[in-house]
Amino acid sequence: MTIDKKVLAYIVVGMLTAILSCSKSPCEGGKDNLIVETVLTADEQSRLTPAQVIQSLREGNVRFCANDLTARDHSKQIREAARSQFPKAVIVSCLDSRIPVEDIFDKGIGDIFVARVAGNVINEDILGSLEYGCAVAGAKVVVVLGHENCGAIKAGIDNVRTGNITSLVVKIRRAVDQAAAAEINPAPKSKDFIHAVCLANVQISLTDIHDNSPILKTLEEQGKISIVGALYDINTGQVKFLDRDQ
Ligand SMILES: [Zn+2]
């Protein structure tokens, strides 16, 4: 009888140990005991406001900076998203390899459209993509995302002329001229000047969207979408929304 009690005690201790160790390991399903398996639905997208989407992007960036990204079951999400998509935002980002756009907002499959072009400039094809994202697919926010220490911006400052880079640089030169006119430490290689050109370049892209897309402009005036600018800091991972965080 005494032996049986000891055996029973070992079994109980063993079970408790297993339960406790499982609660701290991936067998429970990662952080917060949650792995996202679903994707945005049409109903969920339709209920979102532009302000809620911006807040979602902000909160995702906070998690990214804290190295606390959401765990996702990509296999299940791929199957969920195969038939349709209802993303909440469209991001226009630079080509830069240091900016994994979905990651920096802690978003995954089906969450956001991403249009990438060096220098996050606006052209007809990007405008068509933005109009598709918002007017056809229902996204609620357009973000023009510039970034510090941008190679395309530096090429613009250096007025690089070669191949098809030339037409890109011509677009960016408008921001160079604008920053120089504002006399923000116009020494071409200064950190302040590069920052000023990055900022001006995002503002010019926002103006280009408003000036050349009556569809997006009207959606914004109706309160159905927001069109905002943001800057990504490649030193910290932080995204600052212009006119909101500065
Ligand atoms: Zn760049």
Automatic annotation (TrEMBL):
Its cofactor is Zn(2+). InterPro entries: Carbonic_anhydrase, Carbonic_anhydrase_sf. One of its GO terms (molecular function) is zinc ion binding. Zn(2+) binds at residues 94, 96, 147, 150. Gene3D superfamilies: Carbonic anhydrase (3.40.1050.10). Binds 1 zinc ion per subunit. The keyword Ribosomal protein does not apply. The keyword Acyltransferase does not apply. It comes from the Bacteria. It holds the Pfam family Pro_CA. Keywords: Metal-binding, Zinc. Belongs to the beta-class carbonic anhydrase family. This is Carbonic anhydrase. It comes from Chryseolinea serpens.
